[in-house]
Amino acid sequence: MLINIIIADDHALFSEGVQAALQHEKDIKIVEIATNGNEVLKACAQNEVDVILMDIGMPILDGVETTKIISAQYPKTKVIALTMYDDIVNLNKMISAGAYGYLLKSVDKEELCFAIRKVKKGEKHFSTAVTLENVLEKKKKKLKETYFLEDLSSREREILMQLARGKTSNDIAKDLHISIRTVETHRANIMKKVGVHNTSGLVRYAYSIGIS
User: Fold this and answer.
1) pLDDT at residue 89 above 80?
2) Domain count, the chain
3) Which 3 state secondary structure label does DSSP give 140?
4) Does one domain contain both 77 and 124?
5) How do residues 183-211 score in pLDDT, each as one tens digit?
6) CA distance linking residue 41 with residue 36, whole number of Å
7) Integer Cα distance of 9 and 40 in angstroms
8) Using CA atoms, how far apart are residues 83 and 107, in angstroms rounded to an integer?
9) Which of 115, 130, 145 is the last residue of a domain?
10) Contact 88, 204 (CB under 8 A)
């Protein structure tokens, strides 16, 4: 059975790479390459589309909003997020929008094809690099070597909660009436304590222990 797909990404080189990777798959046909959500919707109106490989950060109409519309207007068309974002926040946004899959752009051809075929059958496929279960499992192992939430000061816990809610250092400084430098110092101390190296890591940590 032929699977008609759309590649939706505003980076031409990436789209061309995906097209090249899939061109010899006899059961997969690329019917359109779109660079924004509006082009995706137009292509769906003109073609029978089974699966869309959807970037999240597209111009005009992003992947999340486009997926919401596709889910409502074309329920037989399944969306797989194909993105550089390896965080739970974007994963949850796409799941809530109706996506059937979530893959990182570093995915190999074998998993990409497997996901397309699986989603075409109405099954879901999410990259283990970003699934909540995987994050929680990694956290359980890491907690043996790092600090628990109780080891953070009350101020550090407060700042961690703000970061988990998407607040910037500037926002947090204003909310807590402290300097940005103080916020950055606390953030660095939190990262050291919980064993992560960037803000996205802190957000994943916060979600894994129930802070949101």
Assistant:
1) yes
2) 2
3) helix
4) yes
5) 999 999 988 888 888 888 888 877 776 66
6) 9
7) 10
8) 10
9) 130
10) yes
Instruction: Give the CATH number of the domain where residue 167 resides.
Output: 1.10.10.10
Q: Token pair of 212, please?
A: 């949101």
Q: How many CB atoms lie within 10 A of CB 207?
A: 19
Task: Tell me the pTM.
Answer: 0.64
Residues 163 and 178 in one domain: yes
Domain range for 57 is 3-130
Q: Which of 130, 162, 189 is the last residue of a domain?
A: 130
Contact residues for 3 (Cβ-Cβ < 8 A; gap 6+) = 27, 28, 29, 50, 51, 116, 117, 120
Whose tokens are 């890491």? That residue is 142
Q: How much of the chain exceeds pLDDT 90, in percent?
A: 61
- Comparing 7-11, 54-58, 147-151, the range with the smallest average pLDDT is 147-151
